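Q: Sequence in, structure out?
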Amino acid sequence: MTALTLSTSGAATLRADALVVGVAKGAGSTSGGLVVAPGAEAVDKAFDGKLAAVLETLGASGAEGEVTKLPAPSGLKAPVVVAVGLGPVPAKDDAYEAEALRRAAGSAARALKGSKKAGFALPTESAEDAGAIAEGALLGAYAFTAYQGGEDRLAPRSKSAGNDAKLPLAEVTLLGAKPRDKAFKAAAERAVAVTEEINRARDLINTPPNDLYPESFAAVAAAAGKEHGIKVQVLDEKALVKGGYGGLLGVGQGSTHGPRLVKLAYTHPKAEKTLALVGKGITYDSGGISLKPAGHNETMKCDMSGAAAVFAAVVAASRLGLRVNVTGWLALAENMPSGNATRPGDVLRMYSGKTVEVLNTDAEGRLVLADALTRASEEKPDAIVDVATLTGAMVLALGNRTFGVMANDDAFRTSIHEIAEEVGEASWPMPLPADLRKGMDSPTADIANMGERMGGGLVAGLFLQEFVGEGIAWAHLDIAGPAFHEGAPYGYTPKGGTGSSVRTLVRLAERTAAGDLG
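A: Exactly. Output:
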């Protein structure tokens, strides 16, 4: 993992492989529009006040995420300066937004892959700024290399050896931070805890399905629980049969890897509220008998991203010692076609006792979530949030970078949306139109797992709502778009698993602990 340190050293005296500074687009500068951001004064001085002019000569514009490398002048101990764009200069008296700092730090960290140490001299006016920069740098430095390099991949990085371009930036040093200030120290510690868990979620999402299946995922959760003081309970196939978890069993029965329901319980002795998080954990989704068409199977190892996010959020809450009880439910199954697989037309009896006619076995996520939602509701939490890569319809509606938020309570839905925007995760509130419920009426069972094709993401939300306990505030996050990024990396977002929604869930837990959600 990339290390993080807060330093009082000046940018000119820091010994590192590179110094990261911010530049922005702004009118009124003598260089014609490019502005050197606060924090880079010493570096600009080393360039005789001409850093902006030199960067413009090299084509830099200050656009968000733009990275320009140039050799450092003799007045600096670091040999390389990395200028990263922050976008437009803020209005007078306004600070740079946290997300702009987060993305800039992430872009710089990615550009420094293979380096041992970099000093980040980005605008740091507050502990919140330092936390955002730390988050961005630590997330941007992520690399999934577990299946690369053969036996050498586990060897420690030699101090005498050259830089390894496959390895992430080894150390991030925040300049302008205050290591003895309680607020700055707390912001740094929080950033480390949250980003390490996000990166753990990314690792799980990126792990190939021949190595990550329900039993092995449950083992990872159990090991983490032991390490962080979280009580973990794993229901295997026998326990699921005994308990009547028809949704999980029905989805998982076509695979040689049996399903699991994992409960992670973090408790605080002074907690006044309990938050339940439920994650869809389809470790591989072939579509089952309703087989996915060619071209849609290759990334289906990511269909457990919701469970990975829930797992990461519970561990992060424990590491932060939040004054709230957080229970995570991981609904784990592998959806495969075989002679034992559930068929379209089969009827499953769910844990709640309701029967579901399966019209499409590729609408499996809602089946495993239904059992987990019912079980979570039995414990009467103050609120339930489920997270799932649930529908392609949500991707069509919101694109690849925004997740949808549905809820049975308008105020709770608004709170989740606001929290997501606050932490830099794009989301959008979505309705649950009552008229779409009729499309799931079944002549055979209590409800069908499919309804109208149009508005399919909302139909899925309505299905899940049927399994939430009465009187419990509930929200559903459909992260099908942002959970797995297939394009080129940008900002702090890598190619592959992203860890989408973890920051939202952690901030929700923090807000709940502080009593801000009522």
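The radius of gyration is 24 Å.
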